[in-house]
Amino acid sequence: MRRQTSAAADRYPAAAFLSLIIGLTLSMTSLAAATTAARGVFQSGPDFIAECFASQPSEKKTLWLTDELRQQVSKILGHPIAGLRVRYHQNGSKTAWILEEIGKEMPITIGVMVDNHTIQQVKILAYRESRGGEVRYPAYTRQYQGASLKPDLSLSQSIDGITGATLSVWAVNKVAALALYFDGVVTQQRTDA
Amino acid sequence: MTNKTSPTFSHSARTNILWHRRLGLSVFLLLIFLAISGFALNHSPALKLNQIALSNNWLLSWYGLEKAPAKGFQVDGQWLYHNGDAELFVDGTEAAPCRAPLLSAAANDNGLFALCADSLVMLTPQGQFVEQFSAIDGLPTALQGLAVVDNRLYLINESIAAEFDPERWSISPAPMAVDKLARSQQAMATLPQALAQQLEQHQSGPSISLETVILDLHSGRFFGQFGVLFIDLIGILICILSITGLIAWINRR
Hints:
The complex is a heterodimer of chains A (about 190) and B (about 250). Chain A is of the alpha+beta class. Chain A folds into 2 domains: about 1-35; about 40-190, no CATH class. Chain A is about 45% helix and about 20% strand. In chain A, a hairpin with a 2-residue loop joins strand 5 (about 105-115) and strand 6. The N and C termini of chain B lie close together (about 10 Å). Helices cover about 40% and strands about 25% of the residues of chain B. Chain B has 2 domains: about 1-55 and about 210-250, no CATH class; about 70-205, no CATH class.
């Protein structure tokens, strides 16, 4: 059998070589398809908000970023935040935030729902990097459920990282902490009012 | 030595050498290029490759960095324009992130608005960046222009127009025809000389370094996804070449 195969390869070397190239190309294409699948828009902002509040109506609100807030935000993100205000939705003690943070080179759009100062849900709405898209899997994002913000502005529970997605994991951690911080600020503002 | 080998073994060895030669002939030029470019990248700091800026028009165009025309939109007494990279400028000051091209600009009592390739940027009347709206926020796609009529902001695409209230984040159908709104759009105009000169200075920066070009050629990214796959394929062929070479060496012993 082996001899027959070798004989065939000798008789039709070009065809055998072409088969090898095609086979390898197909394998590489499958690999590329898997890489490309990391990117994408998985849910729109309005759909995420609708999912968070189910049938309850939520109020659209805006948090203006004062200089003091911006300083705290810089501590959480490690860099200044762009823009003068942040939008969010609120119903009672529940707030929902759609925030962006750069993973390696591209922004990741992340939806965070907070209730009573603890995270209820984290969802990756859009992922634009070529690698590290594993952060969108529920098995990863479930780790944030129940997390709150410690006084040093870090998350109250440790989050297991993902090999090869370190920067994306850091970005999600920062956004989760930022949403908790913003939730604390708007709750305080409501109490003061 | 040869007379000790069986006919099957000898045939298999000949096939192995045949394939080794074919693979070698197929990849030798690329192998030399990869070796030289890899050497250059390894010694990039010493060779100062990152300091050699390439600004050839064809190359800039290939990287999508064509020089932006010295044009912009004059709204509310201020000039909004793009630097051809990823920044929106207001009267000479870098104001907000904005993916090229800048399609349209408008102003109402809420502030200034700039329509970029994939988002709508809102600025204060003084030109400070307030926030950005994109498709993920529910903004319609393929927008082509902005118009302000009776202090209301309208988003226009080829066939429909919608009123957008950035304070309430509400989008509703426009009460007037698309062509009528399109006529209300601010037209793009040539920048004043002082701003054009400043833009020219800003544009002189984003050239491509030789290091980037060599790195992209080495990895195949220069030719997009196909190029990366091709270099991957060459990598696999080189592995096979090494294995067939090793087998040939063992067979000769």
